[in-house]
Design goal:
Elements lengths: L1 H18 L10 H11 L3 H15 L13 H13 L5 H40 L2 H19 L1 H20 L2 H26 L5 H12 L5 H50 L1
Helix pairs in contact: 1-2, 1-4, 1-6, 1-7, 2-3, 2-4, 3-4, 3-5, 3-8, 4-5, 4-7, 5-6, 5-8
Length: 272
């Protein structure tokens, strides 16, 4: 289990560490973290499926600055480990990942604030020296230390928690497991509903309705619906550009006409 825990820690470090190495490139999102974990554990399909389900749940949870709502990398990596290594039902793994993500978010915030406070004097001294190379060394060393520490909960979660969780799941009745599985399958829909609640407005309602009709009644798959959406967006954008060009042309003509009127008025006043 030690090797599995180290591999899980490596998967978490790749996802969360690379996300902030050269700027926030979103490798910490569940759909990416799930793919990375699945690749390392030899089951990319399961990793992507679990990552996509958790992405729908955590889609509205974006950590900006000191505001941390959840830590999806730990949740996704542990869910993939539970499903691939422990052969846990995917629905149950997803259901367990949600509270793990919320708890990991609190731990991540504590680690972030603690290490930032400890590392600030080193950055100040490096900046005061005026040497760019020293600033870079401190920056990348701090990056390595911080995100290595941030991945410790994933390591401990697999090393210490995998066996107890496996034993607990084996002792739970099948009906309760079925309930967990059903709730895990419902959580992505709840996540999408929460996201729609934030995005819903009168201008976007028609597009949500159109997508629902295309999938439910016309039987289009996700790729076909996405392609239709791209074509629709391009058509609307071209129409908007055309209207904008017409408005700009009318404004220029109005300005030229106003200037011509003023010139005629000045000539008439001069000769009068």
């Amino acid at each position: 289990m030690l090797g599995t825990a180290l591999l899980a820690m490596l998967a978490a470090f790749i996802s969360i560490g690379s996300n902030y190495m050269f700027g926030q490139c979103m490798t910490e999102r569940p759909i990416v973290a799930g793919m990375i974990a699945g690749l390392l554990f030899g089951d990319v399909t399961t990793g992507v499926v679990i990552g996509a389900a958790l992405e729908a749940i955590f889609m509205g949870a974006v950590n900006v600055g000191g505001a941390v709502t959840a830590e999806p990398v730990t949740a996704t990596t542990l869910a993939v480990v539970f499903a691939v290594v422990m052969h846990m039902d995917q629905g149950v793994a997803i259901a367990l990942a949600v509270p793990i993500g919320l708890l990991a978010g609190l731990l991540y915030e504590f680690i972030h604030l603690s290490l930032s406070s400890l590392g600030a004097p080193f950055i100040d001294r490096a900046a005061a020296s005026g040497k760019e190379s020293r600033i870079k060394r401190v920056h990348f060393l701090g990056w390595l230390i911080k995100y290595s520490v941030c991945c410790i909960p994933t390591f401990l979660g697999v090393l210490l928690g995998a066996e107890p969780v496996s034993q607990m799941i084996n002792q739970v009745p099948a009906t309760i497991i079925a309930g967990f599985s059903a709730s895990g399958n419902l959580l992505p829909a709840i996540g999408m509903a929460m996201l729609f609640k934030m995005l819903w407005n009168k201008k976007l309602n028609i597009f949500f309705l159109l997508g629902f009709i295309l999938v439910s009644y016309l039987g289009l798959d996700m790729v076909g619906t996405a392609a239709f959406g791209i074509v629709l967006i391009v058509a609307i954008a071209l129409k908007d550009i055309e209207q904008l060009n017409i408005q700009n042309k009318l404004k220029k003509e109005a300005v030229l006409s106003e200037g011509a009127d003023e010139s005629v008025a000045e000539e008439e006043a001069f000769f009068a």
